[in-house]
Amino acid sequence: MSIIQKIHVQQEQRELERYWSQLQTVLAGQQASGNLAEHYRYAPDVFERDFTDVDLVKLKTEIKHFMTALQGVEAALKSKVVKR
């Protein structure tokens, strides 16, 4: 167990929440265009309702950013551990 001042933990939580929010936004994607519905053999309204357009390149980038942020948090908190 490590003892760390709450202020340091809260700073790192805010940082992770920012990266997590960005990752969630990219994962949610954008509304799929009804113009593509015929290509996928769906009615336009059903296609727009049931599908999303996710940019997998951006998603991979955001995952890498989040993983880097996690490593940064670990390093930052290790440096803030209160010694006896």
Give a structural overview.
The protein has helices spanning 6-28, 44-50, 56-79; strands at 30-31, 52-53. The chain is built from three helices and two strands. The protein is mostly helical. The two termini are 13 Å apart. Helices cover 64% and strands 5% of the residues.
Give the helices and strands, then pairings.
Blueprint lengths: L5 H23 L1 E2 L12 H7 L1 E2 L2 H24 L5
Antiparallel strand pairs: 1-2
Helix pairs in contact: 1-3
- What is the H/E string? HEHEH
The percent range for strand residues is: under 5%
Main β-sheet description: 2 strands, antiparallel
Number of helices: 3
**pLDDT < 50 runs, ≥5 residues:** none
Number of strands: 2
User: Overall pLDDT, averaged?
Assistant: 94
Task: Please state the overall shape, judged from the principal axes of the Cα atoms.
Answer: rod-shaped
Largest sheet, spatial ordering of strands: 1-2
| Rounded Rg | 20 Å
Proportion of residues in helical segments: 55-70%
Instruction: Give me the secondary-structure category.
Output: mainly alpha
Distance between the termini: 13 Å
Observed structural traits:
mainly alpha; 3 helices; 2 strands
In short, what is this structure?
This protein has 84 residues and is mainly alpha-helical. Helices cover 64% and strands 5% of the residues.
